[in-house]
Design a protein that fits this description.
This protein is of the alpha+beta class and 264 residues long. It has a single domain, classed as 4-Layer Sandwich (Deoxyribonuclease I, Chain A). 22% of the residues lie in helices and 36% in strands. The protein is built from six helices and 14 strands. The strands form three sheets. The protein has a six-stranded mixed beta sheet with strand order 3-4-2-1-14-13. Strands 5-6-7-8-12-9 form a six-stranded mixed beta sheet. Helix 2 packs parallel to helix 3. It is globular. Residues 1-19 have low confidence and may be disordered.
């Protein structure tokens, strides 16, 4: 009897050892932002297959796409997001911002990872023009949630107030998911020194400013070259940027920007 009691004290008095759950290994991912110019290259030819080759060349896992046509007359009525998904073997999310030439025009996202949630929010518009949107997609990266946002903001120089309002809407969307690592990508149609990016940098990190080499021009306009395409992150211990680069390509009038991260 005393021996049994002693064994109970030994087992329960000192506490039992609970098995620990294995900690997932860090995951390296590559993300890309790419304005497709509805598939039209600098040679004037529409060829979505060329842009698929750029994505495959950079081995991107997640791709934020802007200026996409879906069954639009000017681009041969091709389902561009469906064709890119087929050529790259990736999952996709698409949503239109406007109807155009018998089809749809908007933004899309490709992902090697399963898509858990997806939505596209139309920005509030001050001035009449093309409707713009903010895609928000939650991905399952090997058991970790990752929120990716994709946007294309208006280019006109006289609507700075509207761009700043768009930034406010991006921040509000980010605040609704503060517990998830966040990457924001897109064509912001504004230079790095403008008020648009001053506001963005109040809460987010411009990965090019952090790790990029050189100026990082992504668009050669008639007046000058510009950096219009950005990858931002919300500071997080779970998401560590490793490197970022611009790919030289003539498949679109924009060059794609690719960044590599470690998701812990």
């Amino acid at each position: 009897m005393f021996l049994f009691a002693g064994l109970l004290t030994l087992v329960y008095g000192c506490g039992t050892i609970q098995p620990t759950m294995p900690v997932p290994a860090p995951q390296t991912i590559r993300v890309m932002t790419y304005n497709l110019h509805h598939g039209r290259g600098l040679d004037g030819k529409v060829d979505i297959a060329r842009q698929a080759e750029v994505i495959k060349q950079e081995r991107a896992d997640i791709v934020a796409l802007q200026e996409m046509d879906r069954v639009v007359e000017r681009s041969g009525r091709v389902d561009q997001i469906g064709e890119l998904a087929r050529l790259t073997g990736m999952n996709f999310f698409w949503d239109k911002n406007i109807n155009f030439q018998g089809g749809e025009y908007g933004n899309g996202l490709l992902s090697r990872f399963p898509i858990l949630q997806q939505t596209n929010t139309h920005y509030k518009m001050i001035h009449p023009n093309e409707q713009r949107g903010l895609m928000q997609v939650v991905l399952d990266v090997n058991g970790r949630k990752l929120l990716v946002m994709n946007t294309h903001i208006d280019y006109r120089g006289d609507i700075d107030e509207e761009r700043l309002m768009n930034v406010k809407e991006i921040k509000e969307a980010a605040d609704r998911a503060r517990d998830i690592p966040l990457i924001i990508m897109g064509d912001f149609n504004d230079d790095p020194w403008t008020r648009t990016h001053q506001r963005m940098r109040q809460e987010f990190v411009d990965v090019w400013e952090l790790l990029g080499e050189g100026i990082g021009y992504t668009y050669d306009g008639p007046d000058r070259s510009k950096r219009l395409d950005y990858i931002y992150i919300r500071p997080s211990e779970a998401l560590q940027p490793v490197r970022i680069w611009v790919t030289e390509s003539t498949a679109s009038d924009h060059r794609p920007v690719t960044a590599e991260f470690i998701l812990k």
